[in-house]
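Chain A, query sequence.
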Amino acid sequence: MRIGLRTVKTVISATLAMLIAEKIGLLYPTSAGIIAVLSVSNTKKTSVFTGFYRLLSLVLATAIAIVCFQLLGFSAVAFGVYLLLFIPAAVTLKLSDGIVVSSVLVTHYLVERDVSWQIIGNELLLMCLGVGLALLVNLYMPDTEKRLQQDQRDIEATFRQLLGAMAHYLNQDMKNQQLPQQCSSLKHKIEMGEQWAKKHAENRLWSANTYYIEYFSMRNMQSTILKDMLELLEEITVDPQHVAAIQRLLDFTAETFAEENDGVDILMRIAEVFKEYRQKPLPTTRSEFENRAQLFQFLQLFRAFVEIKADFVRLQVEKNLSE
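Chain A, predicted structure.
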């Protein structure tokens, strides 16, 4: 059995919430612990927003409960009317996350048959203790940046490997059947990186750095185009002289593929290859025409593949200049 960090933080926050609630003499101190259990989340920002919205939800619930209990008495019918009014109101105001917790606290008014400021303050303190301690323990989050950087290195190494293999197998009858599988594994790795990047951004309370999210999104788009290129690779069979320039492009890209490469040099080389192909004699047979068309489509996909990175770098530069 493995005990995770979130479990440890939940135990600590719930225990402390109950102990403090008992120490300061609050009614129903166990409720503070339950609120803490429900408030410990995966990221710092989620904890902050959850706590804030639950406090607002309790204020709304208390206001409705006061009206219902004053008019209908402290009865099950009054509580039912309260739910009838509170639930739609909370959903409309996007406070639905606090419906259950707030309603449990409202039952304390019902049990105590009291909606005085003293009991209202008791419930607010229970809520503040629960969400406050959950937020406090959630301030510690493992640093995921090293993991993200390692994912970057692994992903870029796989891209280099795939591009180099494509250059080798381009125009060969015997294709590498493992390349599509490697491309699928690459895409899965990128998607996992995106999830970690989102968690990393959510754990930065005082800044909105979305670089890693944008980076993995860019690589995800490139992996989709790479998959299309691999599918075309299976069909291309032309004279070696027609693929030599593209093979050199793929080899050069594989050698220089890295986070800091802005793609500008590669795009210039691609433009030169396009110019070279326009000067070649036109195909003379239907088969040659179809193969040349597939080769041209392959080159267009490759240009789109590089343009994605070039656009990403340009946007990052513009963002840094504007800050």
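The mean pLDDT is 84. The chain has two domains: 5-138, 145-322.
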